[in-house]
User: Fold BTB domain-containing protein from Euphydryas editha.
Amino acid sequence: MDLTITRHFSLDESSMRSGALVAMEAEPDLSTFENKSGLAEDMKFLASMPELCDVTFLVGDTREPVCAVKAVLAARSRVFQKMLYQAPSPQRKKEPAPRENKLRLFLKRSSEPLLNLQNAAQQRSTFAQQLAPIQEPSSQQHQTLIIEEFEPDVFRQLIEYIHTGCVTLQPRTLLGVMNAADYYGLDELRRACAGFVQCCITVDTVCALLASAERYIQYKCTKSLVQKVLEFVDEHGNDVLNLGSFTLLPQHVVRLILARDELRADEFTKFQAALMWSKKYCDTNQNMSLKDVIGNFLEYIQFHKIPANVLMREVHPLGLVPYSIIMNALAYQADPASVDPGKLSPARIRRAGRSMSVQSSLDPYGSNTTLSSTGSSDGPSSDSRHN
Assistant:
């Protein structure tokens, strides 16, 4: 009995050991370790060392150098791959082989011994060349390319993202990075920028976003972002107009904001914003008079909605608003029926039925591609409006 029990126990223990061995063999002894942050830092270091890179981009008007590795760019962007590795080669038409006459055939046969000697000499020369150092093919040599479409800070952030997979988005360069990502086919970065737009539009950033839109208005991503920024400005009109950074906007962008019917801002705040911008402009352009500069904005301000005491105490003493506009505003407040509405807001009468939008136009101060309101180019100049 004891022996039988012992035998059964021994069999059970053996089966348990064999089962454990099978289980150990079934489960592979593997472990996955990832160090993405370390890899990103190393790749960032690689792109920062010109001697380790094989392409240099001269970016923007200042031609600032930005270095990169061609293989990394080509692997991450098909646009860069075509730019760096698929140079177009001219195609030549094959010419038909000339027919040889009998005289040429005779001369060819008679010169064969001499040709054999020349071929032997060429073979010896070829063998000697093989022993010489091999030169790098042209595709492996360092390249230098000029990038004029984007600013240096924007392009540098793009190159950093391509090499490391990481980039810090900020309102000042957001629009440029988003358009660069779209231009070079980096869809994930473009979507990340579009998502960041929703949370980065604040009172403190709207002016920076609008200023950067000036450079990239020709790209399709710009128009949708500018429209969102303008809608935010409409909702927070008084706060935006009181910003110090409002004076840094281009003149035509200021006109675009002041001319919007949806702008929720009182008229005196609009006048103060126009005055603040005009003073800033005259500080840097001392040959311009303040009255002439602010005259570009007066048609977008409804002076008859400014209280009479504010008109007479704050606006009229400056001598910047024509006397006729002040008198029409006061007359309207006394008797609205006594004043022709066209004399109060001529710009709004012309814009009736037209919506404000973003488009390309000519800026009166020399910019070729700008933000503008639809149909604003047909309006008269400030010299003919306020005489």
User: Anything to note?
Assistant: The first strand starts at residue 55 and ends at 59. DSSP finds 20 helices and three strands in the chain. The beta strands are 55-59, 64-68, 143-147. The longest helix spans residues 2-26.
